UniProtKB/TrEMBL annotation:
Protein name in UniProt: PTS sugar transporter
InterPro entries referenced in this protein's UniProt entry, alphabetically: HPr-like, HPr-like_sf
Alphabetized UniProt keyword annotations: Sugar transport, Transport
Keyword Protein biosynthesis on entry: no
HPr domain residues: 8-73
Amino acid sequence: MEISPTFARLVVELNKAAQPFQSSIVLKTDHRSIDVKSILGLTHSILTSKSFQLEIHGPDEEEAKKKMVQVFHDFHVPVQVN
């Protein structure tokens, strides 16, 4: 399966955006839940899914939510946040 440059950038940007936060950032997809700070798991989850939901919990969760939603928005990928 070929990975487009845009897809690869989305994975890298999501992973990079999540790293500074202390909060737990979990991406729930059609098939699984994955820690966004895990680039390997993130790659597989995004590649095989069509719907995305973020669950963010921790001391800096509000800031993390804003940042993660912005990354999805920048790549025109819809996401729900809980």
